[in-house]
Amino acid sequence: MFEDLNAKLESVLRKIRGQGKLTEKNIADSLKEVRRALLEADVNYKVVKEFVNKVQEKAVGEEVLRSVTPGQQILKIVYDELVQLMGGSHSELKFAGIPPTIIMLAGLQGSGKTTFAAKLANYFRKKGHRPMLVAADIYRPAAIEQLKQLGKQLDMPVFASESKDAVRICREAVQAAREQMRDVIILDTAGRLHIDEEMMQELERIKKELKPQEILFVADGMTGQDAVNAAKEFLQRLDFDGVVLTKMDGDARGGAALSIRAVTQRPIKFLSVGEKLDAIELFHPDRLASRILGMGDVVTLVEKAQEAVDVEKARKLEERIRKNEFTLEDFYEQIQQIKKMGPLEQILGMIPGIGKQLKNVPIDDKAFVRVEAIINSMTPEERRKPQIINGSRRRRIAQGSGTRVQDVNQLLNQFEEMRKMMKKMRRGKFKGMVNPGSLPF
Side-chain half-sphere of 149: how many Cα atoms within 13 Å? Predict the structure, then answer.
């Protein structure tokens, strides 16, 4: 996410931090490069102009020019303005005083609306709610079938009907939700390849009839200014409450995220950051600004860890590490918990400073698959006592896992190094950092 923009802004800010003294000229020169980086990221040109002007106005002030560390002050100004540009603070969803809460999703076909509906339902269930999905796209049987399949994966109820009246379907869904004690309803409405009058009138009727607590416009984050232009059209007709940006795990240049809030004056509420049905994040402007500027995002990382980690298992693991009883079974369990947090590159990118070190290091999530295959090919005794794995056992494990003996050797060597590191940490002697270039992925 924002890899190119991050690299360019880091380069500009590194140059300006290297200046012995800041002047109006070198600030202006640096901001020209910032302007170019933002425009290349497909940020709306009016938004770029206003952003750069605000940064320049604050940067050439007497307070900055006399600062002891002016480079750091410039970084703070850029960070603060990025946060404001994206909305300033996180915007919460509104809930109905009397359930069910109705959330209506709108957007163009292909924006990822149906998949996001399932992700949102999964998100609500994790928060203790009882959601229901509603297939309200009467024009695309494939969309209805897709939502049913996603509901099946999640073991989540999906309301669908043979009716050709979308308003009626939504109305009946609300009644069904009340009968089934469902407290959140997510309406997956019709999308088109382009905006047309018939679709807009239908969405307006659904809004008027059901009076949803939230109307979320779902935008494809990879389409840049096209997403912003579509958002403006939907805003005029629906006056939606917030924005969702999907496909933010791809090569999105970032233009939509940095433009859509400024252009529509509606908050971004969620980011869809992967294909899995738990790959959804609440949108926090301050955290995303930190990521864009290469400062990491420790808070989101901690939240992901809290969701993935089983507290009781973590307590038992701590006891085993203290007793020097960490085994390959424990290692396997840790891999499962890391995988729940999302792609490895994304996780490491949230750690301040690590992203820069990993720029030229190929990160392969498939390494987890190889490691799992090797461990699964071991006997329970071999997992608990890897020291008994001799040459013949290594050949058997390699054959059983579809890997090479060298791969088995590498895993066992790395596991032994990890055990030594844990022993040092337990004794308080661990002073170094792991070199990212030595990681097996």
Answer: 8
26 and 78 co-located in one domain? yes
pLDDT digits (tens, 9 = 90+) for 126-177: 999 999 999 998 888 888 999 999 999 999 999 998 888 999 999 999 999 9
DSSP 375-441: HHTS-HHHHH-GGG--HHHHHHHHHHHTS-HHHHHHHHHHHHHHHHHHHHHHHT-------GGGS--
Plot region of 45 (φ>0 → left; ψ -120 to 50 → alpha; else → beta): alpha
Quote the tokens at residue 276: 């899995």
CA atoms within 13 A on the CB side of 71: 12
Written as six digits, the tokens of 124 are: 């609500």
Q: Point out which residues pair with 216 in neighbouring strands.
A: 105, 242
Q: Are residues 34 and 68 in the same domain?
A: yes
Q: What's the CA gap between 50 and 78, in Å, rounded?
A: 13
CB 106 within 8 A of CB 238: yes
Does the pTM of the predicted model rise above 0.85?
no
Task: Give the bridge partners for 143, in sequence order.
Answer: none
Measured CA to CA in angstroms, residue 42 lies from 47, 53, 223 at distances of 11, 18, 9
Cα atoms found within 13 Å of the Cα of residue 33, Cβ hemisphere only: 17
Secondary structure (3-state) at 370: helix
d(CA 342, CA 49): 35
Greater confidence (17 vs 211) lies with 211
Whose structure tokens read 């750091």?
A: 72
Q: CATH no. for residue 414?
A: 1.10.260.30
Angle (CA) 262 70 62, round 5° = 80
Tally of structural domains, the chain: 3
CA pair distance 349, 419, nearest whole angstrom? 25
Q: Which two tokens stand for residue 280?
A: 């959804």
Strand-strand pairing, 214-220 and 184-189: unpaired
State which H helix or E strand residue 217 sits in.
strand 214-220
Confirm whether 306 is domain-assigned.
no
Instruction: Tell whether 237 is covered by a domain.
Output: yes
- The pLDDT tens digits of the residues spanning 383-431 come to 888 889 999 999 999 999 999 999 999 889 888 887 777 777 655 544 4
Site of tokens 């490895």: 344
Residue 89 structure tokens: 């603070």
Q: Looking at residue 127, what DSSP letter applies? A: T
User: Domain ends where: 261, 295, 329?
Assistant: 295
**Residue 269: which of 285, 253, 258 has the closest Cα?**
285
Predicted confidence (pLDDT) per residue in 176-202, tens digit? 999 999 999 999 998 877 777 888 889
CATH assignment at residue 35: 1.20.120.140
Final residue before a domain boundary, out of 36, 58, 85 = 85
Domain, as residue range, for 356 = 317-438
